[in-house]
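Re: your question from the hallway

Yes, I did run it. Sequences:
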Amino acid sequence: MEWLIWLIPLLPFIGFVLNVFVIRRERAAGLVASGLVVASFVVAVLAIAALSGLPEEERRIMSVSWHWINTGALQVPFGIMLDPLTAVMVLLVTGVGALIHVYSIGYMHGDPRVVRYFAYLNLFITMMLFLVMGNNMLILFLGWEGVGLCSFLLIGFWFERAEASDAAVKAFVVNRIGDAAFILGMLAIYASFGTLNFYEVSVGGQVQPGFLERVPEIIGQTIGPVWQPIALTTAISFLLLIGATGKSAQFPLFVWLPDAMAGPTPVSALIHAATMVTGGVYMMTRNEALFAASPTTQSWVLWIGVLTAFIAGTSAIAQWDIKRVLAYSTVSQLGFMVAACGMGAYVAAIFHLLTHGIFKALLFLGAGSVIHGTHETQDMRKMGGLRHAMPTTYWTYLVGAGALAGIVPLAGFWSKDEILAHALSHDHWPQLIILFLTSLITAFYMGRQVALIFFGQQRDSHYHAHESGRVMTVPLIALAIGAIIGGAINLPWGHWLTDWLKPVLHEEAGKFNLALALIATAGAVGASYLGWWIYTRNAAKIKVGGKDPAYRYSGDIWDGLEEAWYFDRLYRRIIVRPFQRLGSFLASVFDPQGIDGLVLGVGVLFGQAGEQVRRFQSGYVRTYALIFTAGVVIVLGFVLLFTR
Amino acid sequence: MLGSFAPILILFLIAVFIAVFVITVSSLLGPRRSSPRKLAPYESGMEPIGPAIRRIPVKFYVVAMLFIVFDIEVVFFYPYALVFRQLAVPGLIAIGVFFLVLVVGFVYEWRKGALTWE
Amino acid sequence: MESLQIPPVDLRLLTPLLIVVGWAGALLLIDVFFVPDGRKKITGYLAIAGLAVAGLAGIPLWNLSGSTFSGMLVLDRYSLALTWIFLIAGALSIAVALDYLPRHAIEQGEYYPLIMFAVGGMILMAQSADLITLFLGIELLSITLYILTGFAYPRVASEEAGMKYLVLGAFAAGFFVYGIALIFGATGATSLAGIAAYLGRQPFAPQEETLFLAGASLVLIGFSFKIALVPFHMWTPDVYEGSPTPVAAFMSVGTKGAALAALLRVTLALEEAQTFWLPILAVLAAATMILGNLGALGQSNLKRMLAYSSIGHAGYILLGIMVAAERGAEAFLFYILAYTLTNLGAFGVLIALEQRGEAAWSIDDFAGLYQRRPLLAVAMALFMFSLAGVPPTAGFMGKFFIFTAAYAGGLGWLVLIGVLTSAIAAYYYLRVVVKMFMQEPVREVRPELTRGLNTEILIAGVATLILGLLPTPIVLLVERSLVALGG
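Structure:
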């Protein structure tokens, strides 16, 4: 019966195949795509029900379909598994995914390439399921690259807009940096353990323990040069951490996510808020044994998370684009999760991942509804007073904003509080203070955003705002209900999620700190009220294309925040531009198609003689022979002088 | 074994040095007052007519190449004639294969019209 | 006069080689005598048939191994596996040319026998256990390629490419022969076994060692030219660009593959000289990976980009050779197969887009291909992802095998360079995908898909996917093929 779990990723894949090869009509595409993801969700629920029927220690269903790689030394099964950690991820991916598919039917209505859109979306769900269900690093990597590819395709979906295809390439390239580190980490794992399986797999009668179960073996081993030995666990986990910073948009690789908002809004909700970007957090949680074995890496993880949370949170304040606010807020919240991982509070990280997946999807879909209802307006300066025109969107958005700000008793409050409480109980004081500040900032910018969109008067009257159709509001309501009650899965008194994840993460429930909870609540309410109050009081001062009211008091700082601390500009200057120059330099020097730079160089060296030679030389064989000879001299010299 | 070549190497280096030295010095010190007449190539006092490089019909090359083919054939056949008896039948087969390859090439050339000279 | 002995000859061991070369010679005559102009496709089909027969004739040899011609030529599973790869490459290159040549008005029957001769040279290289026969193979391959490069005769670019390749090739061949001479001077042998035996008798005289090292370096340089390792790669982009696209496709996989295969055999046979090979190979590999991939970055001409990409790939393959003794050889064979199929596929798409009288190689001509020819665009995307090393494609598996083998073999820093450069490489491969899927067509380019081309792209595409998803059977085959080598 184990093979039944294959249905979970297979159903969306069938949708992908159908949408690519068979379906040509918009209506059929939407129905088939959504229907299959819903079916996948149902299968997932059934499978998880079966899983929970097993005794706690045996809660891992594994199914291997074939030997992906089978050489003497390296065996990688093409296998997937379902264990408690995977189960919650699968529920999130298929559940939120199904709602967003349904929503997309309304949102993408009338788009000329809608069939392709649903094909990509289905492929994404498949790949994301491989990512979270893979029973070894290589399958995880297959999903990891697959979701990256889908993300690339979907960000650039409206490629008529130049910024969309630029953003798509940027996302892919930045992610490749992380991926390179991930591959190296994978190679290091293979070299240290001889296997890439997470856990014990029995194939063809022989039982092979997974590397996560063998981590203690390598504690104390080091690699690297003698003068600077590095613990093996640190090296591996650090490489994986770099991989996670790419996929989960962490400092210093977070710059691609805000640009990724050029994709359709449901895509932003699904891929760039709820699921794909949490892949890094999932991966670190899965490899918790490796990370826990290296305190060095853990402190890096913690600080990267904290810094990202703060940088992105402050950047979110100064955005005008409705989606960019949410994008920076996503980066910031991912920072919270990563910080939780760094503290060793993996359950809290997963808890926040789940609640965030729900309420951030809600916010994005709400934003999509606003954009849809205002005829593709994204600049919040052109909005205002929309609560009358679109009441359902307004109320659900308010729920999402409250959950993100951390207002009792919405979902976000419980999960964020668990992270903060863990920081407090483990005496991570500096990190606690920064995270606490960030959560105040979060509340503030959500108050600002709600005020800008829904309160005051409509500042641009070129459009007539209207509420979205049923197919879009129903998913909003469903997600809003989730955002209200989602915290219940791990209340301080029930801690159901902690118990559920215990077979995987072996974590005790965190202590609830009433004082902290009260202070956090007061802060969240106060900060969001402040944000709301400032921007409704000053609503009249906000002009289309104008400056923020706060700009008067902060000036350049505000500019810096708006450009996310100038990281993009920094990268352009120190990496992108030198890189392009290097590329064109190499093309012009080593590639004589245009100008033969080397003859030129030699010409300068030998003055006139070189010039004369160049004039009479029609082909450049001479140059090639020269370089060839130089190579011969170098190789011969090296061998004869140094080899003996 | 290599040591015995050292004098040659030294001679070689000296030769190179002198050549480079003389050219460098003359180009550095010599005055350069060029006129069109000085730059013109010297052809025994005559005015040069036409370009120095002329096109030659490609047929000459083809014939030359064919000649090389038969040249090599002869080079092989002479020593073979000397050891013809000792090699006996296997030798005959081997040289037959060699000859066959040549014949294939020759027939191809002939059929392609490389031998016609109109 | 003492009697001369001709060494015993076992022609069975050379069956595929003899069939290929013999049939090529016969076909040359058949073509001029019986095949009328304008119907030269017949020659092409006959050539493919000959290659297929040679491949089938190789099957009974699987359990056979041995050497002949006084140990100058060997047959083992390694050479047989390579022979098959080369036969496939040759057949696919002929298949794409069937319609390409008439479309570009350069149809001549000689094309097909010439490709067969080149394949014969490659097989000879794979079977060589002696530097002399190795050189023979290299020259047989090279001389046919000089002609093929200049095959698009009235086109100046093609002539220029042929000329350049000839001049530089002769230059490199000179180094190679000189290296053989020096090695012979030092060791008194040209056979790999003889040289290895000599190396085993340490210590030897310092002068002989100098001679040997210089000779080995020159031989390595000769190889480097054929493989196009930096800094002996300069000819590659020009020659690929100028030569007819099917020839470029054949060269990108053929010459490279054969030279790498021979280099692998040489390094394995001369394991005693490992301490000498490794540092040079390491530097060459690093330079090749870095400069090959960086060079591709600035290219807007897809043919040149593929040329640079093939340089970069040679760097990765070199990693496999360096750790050949420890599982590297398997990774090497797998990579060669994966790369051959993927690259032939990519060139096939290029050929489909090439119009008569002009060359649609600018990357802009790929804009919006998805709208016009979705399947062709998907195939090209597959090849690009495979070359970039994205799972689940053949290219990813190849890279994965190579990197794991190299990492386990202690070449950590080269693996680092490899992974980083392949991350860079993703950028320029991706640019093609972006053009195809995310941009509107710039100008009208009508892809012409003919039967031969369709078949080739289909085979390459399916193989790229299968090697990525189900590599195990191939890996097992490869593993078995290396038993004789002791890899």
